[in-house]
Design a protein that fits this description.
Layout: H1 2-22, H2 31-58, E1 75-78, E2 80-87, E3 103-104, H3 128-133, E4 135-136, E5 144-150, E6 153-158, E7 161-167, E8 173-180, E9 185-191, E10 194-199, E11 224-229, E12 237-243, E13 250-255, E14 262-268, E15 298-303, E16 311-314, E17 351-355, E18 360-365, E19 368-373, E20 381-386, E21 394-399, E22 405-410, E23 431-437, E24 440-447, E25 464-467, E26 474-478, E27 484-488, E28 496-503, E29 516-522, E30 525-530, E31 534-540, H4 548-555, E32 558-559, E33 566-567, E34 575-576, H5 581-593, H6 599-617, H7 622-629, H8 642-661
Antiparallel strand pairs: 1-28, 2-31, 3-4, 5-6, 5-33, 6-7, 7-8, 9-10, 10-11, 11-12, 13-14, 14-15, 15-16, 17-18, 18-19, 19-20, 21-22, 22-23, 23-24, 25-26, 26-27, 27-28, 29-30, 30-31, 32-34
């Protein structure tokens, strides 16, 4: 393994040398140099692929080297159970090309005269990644994307529209209706009877038509936020549309409905700036012109009673230098020095995750991670900024349940490339975990899915959510074709993987963008949108890392603020738990795991908890209530760490709550 790793570094060094050679003045116009450089790059890449395959064969991780297949790929799973896999609904895939394979470019040699074409036995062997670059793909036109939940409703977004499902009592989605409305990327949020939908691609039309828009500027084009009324789930109706200069890649529901009936949304556009002829005041990057649509987010107001009047109320320049006012006030793009990552310029936010109860938002903003004060949600204020020498593109952010940590992700390679190979750095395309100390982001650790992946598996950190286990910080995350990881980051310095699920690549010999776009926990189940295959439903099962009581307690969690049954991906609401025996037992399991509670005390508490359910069904029991209330779990004077004290306090509060309910 060491030999192969060193040889890969050697071949990769040759590729870097060629890149430096190509950066020399005049190299662009030298055909012989370009041919030489291309040959060197391709030959080295092919050798690296061969050695990566050997390293995968030496790995002991069950996820390494899984067999390929569109619907019959080999699977590996740990501490999870796959409950159901549903394929995409009709109309949301191409029956002639369900895998969304790329078409080969026309053969340039075919037009040559006889004798000039390259002989078949001399055909150049190219790397899998280079081969993918030379194919024409259907532009993610049917790809599944993000999800949102409300009550027993699940909405899955797509580059082609969205699908609405009803979740039955077993947690399985049943399709209600499909809406075809192309434009990508189709991120969704639910607020009451309104569905908010992001559109960024230039093919998007106001009328949701399939024919697209072919001219540079057209009043038929739509790029921005669509608003649908879904009060009749079988017949969604578009009732609002907000055009934006860079479209809508993602959006965040910040607040609302307010007492005056308004919803406030942050919009993040990452596309090109549209023609001013098409939309007034859309100005590109003209030197010295501070009116540019770059370096901004949009603050959008949606009136619930009349969404047709939705509008942009501000487009703050959130990256500006506070002293000079220069809009490009943060990372300017480029590497951070030797052996560091090439990081994108900070001129956009990919995701902004809001935590309104703490007046905070975390922005994953291409070249930087940002902490915002959103006390005034219409005017977000930057309070801290961080960078990472291993991050290529700051993609998403997730708070822990207390709002005291942020987990940022890096989408190195844009999501369409294999970036979990055996030789890829474990701090590139990874998570970065920060503690929030006095309104400052303090770096603690990186985490990356550890299983080496094939060259045909696009893999990098992507979307996930908190699993609301009381007393712990647990995150379920998508890694595209790297599968699903469940990570415990309770100890910010030492995140560990406690469960996973993975499939083999879609194709054995072709790199196709697939795998999980998003995986979210909702009411006891984990739902995952597979970009190419469909929708998966999984659950956690007891293990040495997670007890049956902790899993049961997570399923009882509910939002402390707002609607009791809801989940929007970039809007985090702290979760709470009922005073129930399951929750008490979860805390006891954690304290026992850390040997922080006396076993005799545990036996006494468990004996009383075993009686609660029956007594509650019979209308309560004052004597049992008094017995439970007498348990003393005071932390005063206790020599224990902060986490142990917190769990004891929460266990005590839960027991007191159970006593009151009896």
């Amino acid at each position: 393994q060491l030999f192969l790793s060193l040889m890969i570094a050697h071949h990769d060094g040759a590729i870097k040398m060629v890149e430096e050679l190509r950066d020399q003045p005049g190299s662009t116009y030298d055909p012989i140099l370009n041919e030489f450089a291309s040959d060197i790059t391709n030959d080295q890449a092919v050798e690296i692929e061969r050695m990566n395959l050997l390293l995968i064969g030496l790995s002991s991780d069950p996820r390494a080297g899984l067999a390929a297949g569109l619907y019959d790929a080999e699977e590996a799973i740990m501490n999870m159970q796959l409950l159901e896999s549903q394929r995409k609904p009709m109309g949301f895939y191409d029956p002639a090309n369900p895998a969304e394979r790329g078409a080969e470019e026309p053969d340039k040699d075919a037009d040559m005269e006889d004798g000039e074409s390259v002989a078949e036995d001399e055909e150049e062997i190219t790397s899998i990644e280079e081969e993918a670059k030379n194919r024409r793909y259907p532009m993610l036109s049917f790809s599944n994307t993000d999800m949102a939940f409300r009550d027993d409703i699940l909405v899955t977004g797509s580059y082609h529209g969205f699908n609405i499902y009803s979740i039955n009592e077993e947690g399985f989605p049943e399709l209600i209706t499909s809406v075809i409305c192309p434009g990508g990327q189709g991120d969704v949020s639910l607020v009451g009877d309104l569905l908010i939908y992001s559109v960024e691609e230039t093919r998007g039309r106001l009328d949701c038509g399939l024919e697209g828009v072919t001219v540079d500027a057209s009043l038929d084009r739509f790029r921005g936020l669509r608003i649908f009324d879904i009060s009749d789930l079988s017949r969604p109706k578009q009732v609002g549309a907000v055009q934006t200069c860079r479209g809508s890649h993602t959006h965040s529901v910040v607040s609302g409905p307010t007492p005056d009936g308004k919803i406030l949304v942050y919009n993040s556009g990452t596309g090109s700036v549209r023609e001013e002829e098409e939309l007034e005041q859309c100005i590109e990057d003209i030197p010295g012109d501070d009116r540019t649509a770059l370096f901004r987010i949009d603050v959008i107001e949606i009136p619930v009673d009349d969404p047709s009047q939705s509008r942009i109320i501000d487009s703050p320049a959130v990256f500006a230098d506070p002293e000079t006012g220069v809009l490009a006030g943060l990372w300017r793009g480029g590497d951070h020095g030797e052996d560091s990552q090439e990081t994108e310029i900070t001129d956009q936010c990919h995701d902004i995750t809001v935590f309104p109860s703490a007046n905070l938002a975390a922005g994953a903003c291409s070249g930087n991670g940002i902490l915002f004060d959103i006390t005034d949600p219409s005017k977000p204020k930057r309070i801290d900024v961080v960078s990472d020498t291993g991050f290529a593109y700051w993609h998403s952010a997730t708070f822990n349940n207390e709002g005291t940590k942020v987990l940022f992700t890096d989408e190195w390679g844009g999501g369409g490339r294999a970036r979990c190979r055996a030789w890829d750095p474990l701090n590139w395309g990874a998570d970065a975990i920060y503690d929030i100390i006095d309104e400052k982001l303090e770096f603690r650790s990186h985490y990356k899915m550890p299983a080496p992946q094939l060259e045909t598996e696009n893999c990098v950190a992507h979307n996930g959510s908190i699993v609301p286990v009381p007393g712990r910080d647990i995150f379920v995350q998508a890694w595209y074709q790297g599968g699903i990881s469940v990570i415990d980051f309770t100890d910010s310095l030492n995140p560990i993987e406690i469960a996973y699920f993975d499939r083999g690549p879609i194709m054995e010999d072709e790199l196709i963008t697939g795998g999980y776009w998003s995986v979210y926990y909702y009411e006891g189940a984990i739902y995952g949108t597979e970009i190419t295959r469909g929708l998966d439903i999984l659950k956690l099962i007891p293990s040495e890392y997670l007890s049956e009581n902790e899993i049961a307690a997570a399923a009882l969690a509910y939002p402390m603020i707002g609607h009791r049954r809801a989940f929007n991906p970039q809007q985090q609401v702290p979760m709470d738990w009922p005073a129930s025996p399951e929750v008490a037992r979860a805390y006891i399991d954690q304290l026992q795991r850390d040997k922080a509670i006396d076993e005799k005390t545990v036996e006494q508490i468990i004996e009383k908890l075993d009686q609660v359910k029956i007594e509650m069904e019979m209308g309560g029991n004052n004597r049992l209530a008094r017995q439970i209330n007498r348990f003393s779990l005071s932390v005063e004077g206790l020599n224990a760490d902060v986490q142990t004290k917190s769990r004891l306090e929460r266990l005590d509060a839960t027991l007191k709550g159970i006593s009151e309910s009896l």
